[in-house]
Design brief:
Layout (H helix, E strand, L loop, with lengths): L2 H27 L1 H22 L4 E9 L3 H11 L2 H11 L5 H6 L1 E5 L5 E8 L2 H23 L4 E5 L12 H26 L6 H8 L13 E4 L6 E5 L2 E4 L9
Antiparallel strand pairs: 1-3, 1-4, 2-3, 5-6, 6-7
């Protein structure tokens, strides 16, 4: 590798390191903005998810219908019939309509067997269990009077499931958190680009278009009084310089 290429490569590496350092310092200087925006965004996502998200709970019960495939379809339709739903409504003292109760119920045959699964989705986990069990029991009792069919057996009762099936709150909060970080970082760099303060000597060269011959470091000055000599003392970089007090100056 030639010397020119090597110098160019080293210059590019140093340039990248300087840029990364500038990015880091820019973020560090206004880190509080990123933190504040992230907190506000996360809280907004939390309250939004709680306000708009309606949790739905699902449970199911199973029954066995001792019938051939020809009567199975008719019996499954009868499970959600208004006659059965009206009995469920009256027994559980529900205020909703029978159509609303039926909409939350789904019926399916498991693996082409005689086992029928009655699933219920409701906004209340306990109400879902009550509707599922009541539907199975009332169907077994009423189908005898309707179709004179006695081949229904209860297999397993529904149990309460405390976990919602549409749980999206955590995902919304995570999205809001990431969004807050992105917006905060973007806002920091936007404010930095609008800031006209000169921080580097290279910026002075670019603005004035003249080379810099030297740099004077910042000096912290502190005036103290020497107790023995009663003379003001100037401290700079750890070195103490005594200043003689002149009588003519009124000290």
């Amino acid at each position: 590798m030639s010397r020119v290429k090597r110098d160019t490569l080293i210059g590019n590496i140093k340039g990248k390191e300087i840029n990364l350092k500038e990015y880091y310092l820019t973020i560090k200087k206004r880190l509080w903005i990123i933190v504040a925006v992230t907190i506000i965004s996360t809280l907004a996502g939390y309250f939004y998810s709680n306000y708009n998200n309606v949790p739905l709970y699902q449970t199911s019960t199973r029954i066995i219908i001792g019938s051939d495939s020809g009567d199975m379809s008719t019996l499954m339709v009868m499970i959600k019939d208004p006659i059965i739903m009206e009995k469920v409504k009256d027994e559980l003292l529900l205020t909703r309509s029978t159509e609303s109760i039926a909409e939350g119920i789904s019926v399916e045959v498991i693996n082409d067997s005689r086992v029928v699964k009655i699933s219920v989705i409701d906004q209340n986990s306990k109400t879902a269990v009550e509707i599922a069990n009541a539907t199975a029991e009332i169907f077994k009792r009423e189908i005898v009077n309707i179709l004179d069919f006695r081949g229904v057996q209860l297999l397993s009762a529904a149990k309460e499931n405390p976990v919602p099936i549409n749980e999206t709150q955590n995902r919304t909060i995570i999205i809001a958190f990431v969004f807050g970080i992105i917006v905060g970082v973007g806002l920091v760099f936007l404010m930095d680009s609008l800031d006209g303060t000169v921080y580097h000597d290279s910026d002075v060269e670019d603005i004035l278009e003249v080379p810099i011959l030297g740099i004077i470091s910042n000096m912290n000055r502190k005036k103290v009084v020497d107790k023995n000599r009663k003379v003001p003392v100037l401290e700079s970089r750890g070195e103490t310089v005594g200043i003689e007090k002149r009588k003519a100056e009124g000290y």
